[in-house]
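Final report, Chapter 2: Outcomes

The project's central promise was a pipeline that accepts a single protein chain and returns its three-dimensional structure in a standardized token representation, suitable for archiving and comparison. That pipeline is now operational. To close this chapter, we reproduce one record exactly as it appears in the project archive, with the input sequence first and the structure output second.
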Amino acid sequence: MSLSLKELCALVNVPYDRTLEEKVFSEEDEEDEEEDALCPRNISGQEQATEDVQDQVEHNESEKDDAHCSKNISGQEDAADGQDQMAHNGSELVDAHCSRNISGQEDAADGQDQMAHNGSELVEGNKENDVAEEALGGESRMGRPKRRTTTETWKVNTQKRRRMMGQSYLGRRQNEEVTREERKMGRPCQSVFCRKSKKLHCEAIQEADREAIFKYFWEKLDWRERKIYVVSLVDVGPVRRRRTGEEQSRRSASILCHLKVDGKRTRVCQSMFLSTLGIKQWCFLSWVGRREPEKIKKTSIRNEEVEFLQQFLKDFPKVPSHYCRSSSTKMYLEPLFKSISHLHSEYTHACAENNVQSLSRQVFSSIFNQLNLSLFHPKKDQCNTCCSYKVGNIDAGTWEEHCRKKESARVSKQEDKNNATEKTMVVCMDLQGLLLCPKLQASALYYKTKLGVHNFTMYNMATHDATNYLWHEGEGGLTANEFASCIIHFLEEHSMHDEYILWSDGCSYQNRNIVLSNALLKFATEKQKVVTQKYLEKGHTQMECDSVHSVIERRLRDRDIHVPAEYATVIRAARSNPRPYNVQYVNHSFFQDYSKLKLCKSIRPGKNPGESTVFDLRAIRYNVDGTMDYKTVHADDWTPYLSPTLRKRNSDTTVLPLYTSSLRIKALKYKHLQELKNFIPKDFHGFYDSLNYE
């Protein structure tokens, strides 16, 4: 390769000066020896012996060609880079010559030395490369063939091909390599809805057909063809039915999916479609063109914050369900907080005191529910059947039958109330929600367990008189014996009547059990009185005695209670017209043990599987001769207990006391009550000191 000085100047964008060229050639004789000494090179097997500046330029251009060839062998730099380097070196040569001739302080040898030095660095730097590109063609001057760059063998392209073919591949998660599993066909549709549907035919697709579709989709098609295949099997149209009342629904279209078997499109559900093809929903939605729901940015929550909240909730004293303790494991915070917002506000204050970041109300409520907690006691008059009917989970026939039973019970109760006379006493009875003692406004009570106080009310529906049996957990529990003792005591206190009708809800441990039946049967036979128990329909158990509890709760509002006896004082003063409520503040010696009586062995109407059970009872009558009758529907006639296994006559009727001493409360509760004495007047400290504990 040979370039004149004029061409070289044009190449490196330097102005050409003819006088400069003449001066350069006039000094060639003086520079020959110095050039031979300074620039000996033997790269291509030939000696460099230039006699003029033009030959020297040609020699350096040859070196640049060699550098290009060597670079092409390496495969890491391209021809354009070598050409730019050549131009740069040539520019340095011209600048060096110009500077030497113009200033007179530098000579041509310096420029040539610099040029040779740069060329040498270029050659030696490129000798480290060993792969050639075929784009430039030919062979290198070293005699080695130039190798081709094969991008197909690059690791990133190999993994990309494996991903497109549904095979396992190496992907990246943040800064780490992770192995992605191969595409697999999912399970077939097992939805009960699809089996019953006349439009979806998921069961018609055999497993062999699904495997053939899966293999064809991932082995025969490329990515673009797969998209076309999916779109051809999906029908996207306007929304046919919206299941939400929101105006801005996230649902933007109705999608109908099909699978093609033997050339025929068969409609299937979306789950079956995706599992057969082995694709994800987000990819499917992007292909068919449906708008995806907006992604909500999740806020990370530290474990320390969650643990603090869980411990905060666990520290609160809790009580079991009042009406559903036999079937519910939910625990209830003592009635100290008015709402979740009130509880969350207290939690926020606790976080500030402990320098912990408080969680939002939404997260707080979620964790509160995960711990199976609640603020309020379950309502006995919340009807599960009616609620299920409202949301469409039960049929109209079942709900209508439930309503007939409800009306039948109410009509029967109203008839009994109207027929109440001096000879017939009609009573309703129920247990008030749990009361706590002490009941104060101090925030220290939030984290302390307190003494439970129970109030069982019996209400005369003719005279509107009410008797309240009051005791705390240190004197008695909540078993059938406690309630039977209260009922029998009430009947004995009103022994002037010949017949008693007792209305209540169907709570098993309280009103509908063998212990209470034995106690009432004993009373009926010994006192020669007829006693009838009647039960309201579940979920609709509103009674007159509920008004007593409502009046008491209004009187207790914003009222401090230091000892259980103060509840008795409040209840007596809760009503003045027509008469104050009667209060029986009882202790452990009041309760009798009726569980040992064997007058009645069972109150179940049927004895074989599938026949009526205790829960089907709506009324039980205890006769003076020791016989018993029952009803499963209030409007039906009485049916006697005919089976001899239901009753055992001539049994021992001796009743012993249920407790011989006060009950022991838990040690932790006793400790908390002692700590709460700091907020209670000293006059009441003796009561808490006298409590027995474990």
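Archive annotation: The mean pLDDT is 77.
This record, like all others produced under the grant, will remain available to the consortium after the project formally closes.
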